[in-house]
Structure to design on (584 residues):
């Protein structure tokens, strides 16, 4: 150990480790900067996106949940709230309109804000609480439908309530068909007096929870096994699946972009380690004449490089912390929310990246030091034991593939990127080698300085080709980042077809279909066929009862359980935009 430390200090003073240390710091700093900033941005987006469900976690059920089960959240220091949603007719003095009624308690919403106004379609103002008992808030479009105004009263079931405010926006409105009807919000304590909820009524009970993420996960693990079969427990990524997908894609995209920098640093590490190994064959030969065994040689240089790796990863992680703080400060005026403090996970990712990068690209040249011949002490003209190209490239490729897979969390994407990169490297390598060899004729016709330079390239054709390959690879990666810098946003935009429906008509009576169709034809509005909609449950799948199936047997990620009630449509002919993937 003492000998290894002495050699490490000597090599550092001699400047032999500068390039290696710099490359490793760049690799760790790049990954740490990206992951720290993405982690902070993701935390902020998740906090903001939680307003889409008005909480951090939601339990949705068609029947009330036992109070004792809900009270378990208090053990984990979680805030909780409750809402009850149902469809009901709302009456004014002259008119009636089907409305989506939501009853909320005093704690609603836990995340996000309600936007209210004094007049329909007026300027809004935020508020952090719902209506008081004995009053309702109504959506703007409901006022002309009922021919009423703020301050007047409406009948909700058996209860007459005054309209206290105009509702412009609610945080957990959602985008399902149940939310197409205009919204009426009332206090939860008034629901029983409306006498609307009766046996057989279709009601959705939602229980909202918010708090520290660690406490939320512990509570979720505790309560999930005890939930009734027809309930659903979800967070923002499951409740707003599009947001979750967007966050995941953005994180993978940025990490893969950072991986390009890691690969470049890896190439520099490999070249520096190879140069370091060639310079130390004489030192190893002397150590062997003094009795050092190959195992002892491996131990000495592994200690040197592990110590160097730890120092470089710590410096790179600290540099990443500083850089990401600077990036966050520069972008602060452009961000709508304050970024939370980063977690330790990105730092650990950067440290792991540094060690994997070091061992993958630097270990093969170091392992060849054990093969140095002691005779080199008196015969320095002996050829050095060059590292096996297959082993060296295999280690580097394996490390790159592992990091790529870890960053993307997608094996198919990793394989495609790796194969594409390998093909590009082979093509660039062949072109670089041809370029070096073809320079001989050019060198003979050039001046003395150029002739000497070209002669130097010709003497080290393979090494020169590798250096050209490294520079070419760097340019290729930079151009790749430039070309795909906007592809993420473009992909999100292109996921929605240009002719996708953006308006929906519900609750059309059979006798009204012809009149509505004629009206739309006159207005030259493109419409899809009408479908009847009913409420039902899946009882069996291919003859197997739903209770016997697992989630992976048919349930989609983020979707309700197979046994949950669903909106079902029926048609005699398969629509043109539908395809049968399996079955008949």
């Amino acid at each position: 150990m003492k000998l290894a430390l002495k050699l490490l200090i000597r090599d550092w003073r001699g400047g032999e480790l500068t390039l290696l240390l710099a490359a490793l710091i760049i690799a760790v700093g790049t990954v740490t900067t990206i992951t720290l900033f993405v982690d902070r941005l993701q935390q902020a987006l998740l906090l903001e996106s939680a307003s889409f469900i008005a909480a951090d976690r939601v339990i949705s059920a068609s029947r009330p949940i036992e109070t004792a089960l809900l009270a378990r959240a208090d053990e984990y220091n979680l805030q909780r709230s409750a809402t009850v949603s149902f469809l009901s007719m709302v009456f004014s003095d002259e008119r009636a309109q089907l409305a989506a009624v939501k009853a909320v308690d005093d704690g609603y919403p836990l995340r996000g804000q309600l936007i209210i106004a004094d007049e329909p379609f007026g300027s809004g103002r935020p508020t952090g609480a719902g209506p008081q008992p004995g009053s309702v808030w109504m959506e703007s479009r409901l006022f002309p439908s009922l021919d009423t105004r703020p301050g007047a009263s409406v009948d909700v079931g058996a209860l007459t309530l005054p309209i206290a405010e105009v509702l412009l926006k609610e945080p957990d409105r959602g985008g399902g068909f149940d939310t197409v009807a205009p919204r009426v919000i009332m206090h939860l304590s008034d629901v029983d007096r409306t006498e609307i909820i009766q046996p057989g009524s279709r009601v959705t009970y939602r229980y909202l929870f918010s708090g520290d993420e660690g406490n939320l996960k512990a509570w979720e693990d505790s309560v999930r096994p005890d939930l009734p079969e027809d309930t659903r427990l979800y967070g923002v990524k499951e409740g707003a699946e599009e947001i979750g997908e967007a966050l995941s894609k953005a994180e993978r995209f940025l990490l893969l972009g950072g991986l390009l920098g890691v690969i470049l640093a890896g190439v520099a590490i490999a070249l520096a380690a190879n140069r370091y190994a060639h310079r130390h064959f004489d030192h190893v030969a002397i150590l062997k004449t003094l009795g050092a065994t190959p195992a002892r040689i491996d131990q000495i240089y592994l200690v040197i490089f592990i110590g160097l790796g730890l120092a470089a990863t710590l410096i790179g992680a600290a540099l990443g912390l500083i850089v990401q703080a600077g990036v966050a400060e520069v972008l602060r005026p452009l961000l709508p929310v304050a970024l939370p403090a980063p977690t330790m996970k990105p730092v650990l990712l950067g440290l792991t990246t540094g060690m994997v990068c070091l061992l993958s690209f630097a270990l093969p040249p170091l392992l060849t030091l054990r093969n140095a011949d002691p005779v080199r002490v008196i015969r320095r003209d002996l050829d050095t034991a060059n590292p096996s190209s297959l082993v060296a490239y295999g280690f580097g490729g394996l490390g790159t593939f592992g990091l790529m897979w870890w960053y993307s969390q997608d094996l198919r994407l990793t394989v495609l990127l790796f194969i594409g990169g390998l093909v590009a490297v082979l093509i660039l390598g062949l072109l670089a080698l041809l370029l070096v060899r073809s320079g001989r004729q050019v060198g003979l016709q050039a001046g003395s300085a150029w002739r000497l330079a070209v002669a130097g390239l010709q003497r080290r054709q393979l090494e020169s080709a590798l250096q050209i390959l490294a520079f070419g690879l760097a340019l290729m990666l930079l151009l790749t980042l430039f070309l795909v810098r906007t592809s993420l946003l473009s992909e999100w935009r292109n996921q929605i077809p240009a002719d996708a429906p953006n308006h929906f008509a519900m609750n059309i009576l059979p006798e009204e279909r012809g009149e509505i169709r004629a009206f739309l034809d006159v207005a030259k509005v493109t419409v899809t066929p009408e479908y009847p909609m009913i409420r039902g449950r899946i009882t069996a799948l291919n003859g197997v009862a739903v209770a016997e199936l697992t989630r992976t047997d048919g349930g989609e990620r983020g979707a309700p359980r197979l046994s949950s009630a669903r909106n079902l449509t029926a048609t005699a002919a398969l629509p043109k935009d539908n395809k049968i993937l399996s079955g008949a």
About this structure: Residues 2-47+244-409 form one domain.
